[in-house]
Amino acid sequence: MYEAITIKDIAKALGLSTSTVSRALRGSYEISAETKKMVVEYAEQFNYRPNPIALSLKERRSRSIGVVVCEIANNYFSQAINGIESVAYNRGYHVIISQSHESYEREIVNVEHLASRSVDGLLVSLSAETNQFEHFKNLHDKGFPIVFFDRITDELETHKVVADNFQGAYNITKHLIDAGYKKIAHISSAAHLSISIERLEGYKAALKDNKVPFSNSYIKNCNHGGMIYKELEDAVKSLINLKDKPDAIFSGGDKLTVSCLAVLNKLKIKIPTEIALAGFSNSPLVELLNPSLTVVKQPAFEMGQTAIELLINLIESKRPVTEFEKIVLQTELFERGSTAMKKLKKK
Predict the structure, then answer these.
(1) pTM
(2) What pLDDT score does 56 carry?
(3) Any idea what the Cα angle at residue 291 is, between residues 332 and 226, rounded to 5°?
(4) Each residue's pLDDT tens digit, 287-309
(5) Angle at 237 between CA 235 and CA 239, to 5 degrees
(6) Rounded mean pLDDT of the chain?
């Protein structure tokens, strides 16, 4: 049976002391760059992995990290979690995932449960219902490491990792305008969420810069982010029943985009002949649909990796951290059939 190598094995093979190998693997400034490189390369070559049980006993930490997201089945969050786990595993941490299902109350329960299990820190993307933050502040004030990603709050001073929601929304709205659409509706999640605010601002800016009038009647918020089908269906129906109905819909979320397509298909509305559709989505299926969907894709995997690196740095810092970063990652626009040029549709 294959046995994983240990620090002692690495030390013996390289003619070093176990303490030198241990410090080299932790990136200690006491060890030369040449020695660190030699140790790390050997460790990677022979698939060395830290023993989380031994580490937790030595450091009095659980070597586990709690992750709170709205829904694992959401393509964006599943990709972010893959990014989180890819880094956590190599750094000797175990990941415990919980879902809020867009519920504030469930988020509180999840956070309290994870904290009671003595996780070393939390990675959090807020639920659609969350607009109070005492459950995080109570932990944060005690020095408990918390990093927010995707859906963030300014109520706590800590590291945050987000996508450039403003620019992503701006780009997709401008694409619709350039394709000939001038009556563009916007369906978003709860209005108070950071992602909803930033995407709405990007949408409005693109309209203004291209001299397309803004209409408040074209804005619809789904407080459960598309998780309740009836809520989204009502929003879409209210748009198509307008006297001056939109000729395009920009949906501001992964679940919203896919569910919006389902509603339009159920109502037998042809895309893009009757209404064009574009939105934020990380689903790998969007290009296989008929028509294929124009989407803004977020760097979810990279966001997860960045957030977990920041959290582990907080956890392992020898001194209290007082300076925090807000890292903004760029999105990418993929233009496909669901937003075909309006003038071509009449042929």
Answers:
(1) 0.80
(2) 43
(3) 65
(4) 888 899 999 999 999 999 999 99
(5) 75
(6) 90
Contact by Cβ (8 Å): 151, 184: no
Instruction: Summarize pLDDT for 132-165 with one digit per residue, the tens.
Output: 999 999 999 888 999 999 999 999 999 999 999 9
Q: With beta carbons less than 8 A apart as the criterion, state whether 193 and 126 touch.
A: yes
Instruction: State residue 143 phi and psi, 5-degree precision.
Output: 90, 15
User: Which helix (H) or strand (E) element contains residue 185?
Assistant: strand 184-188
Q: How would residue 179 be classed by pLDDT, with cut points 50, 70 and 90?
A: very high
How far from 176 is each of 160, 171, 340, CA to CA, in Å? Answer: 30, 9, 9
Which two tokens mark 134?
């005492």
Taking the alpha carbons at both ends of the chain, their separation in whole angstroms is 67
Edge-to-edge strand ranges of the sheet holding 326-329: 94-99, 64-69, 121-124, 146-149, 160-163, 326-329
Residue 149 — left, alpha, or beta (φ > 0 → left; ψ -120 to 50 → alpha)?
A: beta
The rounded percent of the chain whose pLDDT value lies above 90 is 69
CB 277 within 8 A of CB 249: yes
Cα→Cα distances 287→258, 295, 298, 335, Å? 12, 9, 15, 10
Q: If you search the block for the tokens 């966001």, which residue do you land on?
A: 303
Euclidean distance between CA atoms 305 and 80, whole angstroms: 8
Residues 6+ apart with CB under 8 A from 291: 271, 272, 336, 337, 338, 340
Task: Answer whether 74's CB lies under 8 Å from 111's CB.
Answer: no
Q: Name residue, tokens 């198509």.
A: 240
CB 254 within 8 A of CB 225: no
CB 77 within 8 A of CB 69: yes
